[in-house]
Design a protein that fits this description.
The complex is a heterodimer. Chain A is α/β, with parallel strands linked by helices. Chain A is built from 13 helices and 14 strands. The chains are: A alpha/beta, B mainly alpha.
Chain lengths: ~400, ~80
């Protein structure tokens, strides 16, 4: 008998703040966390806006000494994990450390540190490279540091499926608990790629929005004016726990993980297939995994990055997967508020999905003032909407052709 | 730079890098055993000393350094021979 998996704690670091309830309130109020790029080194690129976590204070979580040894993406993940674990009430000193794990997603790793040390290498020679370089830049520094922090000795690893990384990590975490391999898995995603190399690379692809517009209106998924995504940074970490384990310790249960589905385009390394055939299959697989029919879903937290092709492909995919019901189900892109957190994006989006279930309110897609006629579904434009959400799906699609959808449900 | 100044600067750097109270550091303090520096912390410290004092601590010397006093002596020797 497969085990049931519930979520007992969440934590996040986003451009809209670092406290879950505050971020949620601002999100439902239609606020944006996107701002103009004022940092000199980052202001030479075609894109002029980003979602940056200005409120994040790493010293609130780790010693000043450790802030030098951990890259920003790891600090995001560790801070979010600390908040999530605190909310869950877990005390790892009372847990079997081999029954606990950490599986998080990250697209790249320490991109900022790579550039800093490369500059030192070229400018000052190999003798001046920091010995912390490798342990800082590796993508698995995030789960490694979280495991050290809590003394977790079960399976821990990082997954890289670009912008689907967090959803992939949650899928694997769900599976590990469902199959009885673990009682608790700290999961989610993190990314800090708003760096010179990150910005220039995405700009070279013409993937980022270059519109001249007030920053808070720059991220406009499904709008006719959309011209690319707004890059963001941050993390969202969740504590997944086996139901009976959570019940035994009277844990707060935010919701249940019902299933996931994953497929791969296998066509182009970055360009989505306009027909949405493979993301549709991922959605269908998630529904099968959760033993649900399309009509059982009440809301979708969209991938919705605001690229021309991506939003079209997701719209097509939803129609393929849900049929006529695609026109009835409400859905929104929270990337319109905070930008695209890349490998971290699925983390906060899962948290927002769970809060939609908890509070019966769906955050809006802001900046959707002129809907693209080809994007003709109910994207909850501009204003949050009260909905009865018992089951919701969170979509993430990544470069590499990875399509990963996770379904959460009300716990009962 | 006087001997006293070198000592104060070295202790200040170590305290900052390792997150310890400067008042607990003396010439006899063992960087690894007393202050808990691991091999990476130690290697990073040497790079910071090199930058802050504009010197080069050669690998053979670095391998023989264990105490704060040995760091100070190495740096003073290099500054004086400039």
């Amino acid at each position: 008998m497969p085990k049931r998996v519930v979520v007992t704690g969440v934590g996040l670091v986003t451009p809209l703040g670092c406290r879950v309830e505050e971020v949620w309130k601002r999100l439902c109020a239609g606020e944006s966390g996107v701002r103009a790029i004022t940092e000199e080194a980052l202001s030479v690129f075609r894109t002029k806006v980003a979602g940056l976590c200005d409120d994040f204070v790493p010293e609130d979580y780790v010693s000043v000494k450790d802030t030098r040894k951990l890259d920003r993406f790891t600090l995001f993940a560790l801070a979010s994990a600390v908040d999530a674990v605190r909310a869950s009430g877990l005390d790892f000193s009372k847990e079997d450390p081999f029954r606990c794990g950490v599986i998080t997603g990250c697209g790249v790793g320490g991109l900022g540190e790579i550039t800093r040390q490369q500059d030192r290498l070229r400018g000052m020679g190999p003798g001046k490279i920091s010995p912390y370089t490798i342990p800082k830049i590796m993508a698995n520094a995030a789960p490694g540091q979280i495991a050290i922090h809590y003394g977790i000795h079960g399976s821990t690893y990082s997954i890289a499926t670009a912008c689907a990384s967090a959803n992939s990590a949650m899928s694997e975490s769900f599976r590990a608990i469902r199959l009885g391999e673990a009682d608790v898995v700290i999961t989610g995603g993190t990314e800090s790629a708003v760096t010179e190399l990150g910005l220039s690379g995405f700009c070279a692809m013409r993937a980022l929005s270059e519109r001249e517009t007030p920053p808070e209106t720059a991220s406009c998924p499904f709008d006719i004016k959309r011209d690319g995504f707004v890059i963001g940074e941050g993390a969202g970490i969740l504590v997944f726990e086996e139901l009976q384990h959570a019940q035994k310790r009277d844990a707060p249960i935010l919701g249940e993980v019902l299933g996931y589905g994953a497929t791969t385009d296998a066509s182009h390394i970055t360009q989505p297939d306009a027909e949405g055939i493979y993301p549709a299959e991922a959605m269908k697989a998630a529904l099968r995994c959760a033993s649900l029919a399309p009509e059982d879903l009440d809301y979708i937290n969209l991938h919705g990055t605001a690229t021309k092709l991506g939003d079209l492909a997701e719209t097509s995919a939803i129609k393929r997967a849900l049929g006529e019901y695609a026109y009835k189900i409400p859905m929104s892109s929270t990337k319109s508020h905070i930008g695209h957190l890349l490998g971290g994006s699925g983390g906060p989006e899962a948290i927002f999905s769970l809060l939609t279930i908890r509070d019966g309110i769906a955050p809006p897609t802001i900046n959707l003032t002129e809907p693209d006629p080809a994007c003709d579904l109910d994207y909850i434009p501009l204003e949050a909407r009260p909905i009865k959400a018992r089951r919701v799906m969170s979509n993430s699609f990544g470069f590499g052709g990875h399509n990963v959808c996770v379904i959460f449900g009300q716990y009962r | 730079m006087s001997s006293q100044e070198v000592q104060e600067k070295v202790i200040g750097i170590i305290a900052d890098q390792l997150g310890v109270d400067a008042n607990t550091i003396t010439r006899d303090t063992d960087i690894a055993n007393d202050l808990g520096a691991d091999s990476l912390d130690f290697a990073e410290l040497m790079i910071v000393f090199e930058e802050k004092f504009d010197i080069d601590i050669v690998e053979e010397d670095a391998q023989n350094i264990t105490t704060v006093g040995q760091v100070i002596d190495n740096i003073e020797k290099q500054i004086n021979s400039k």
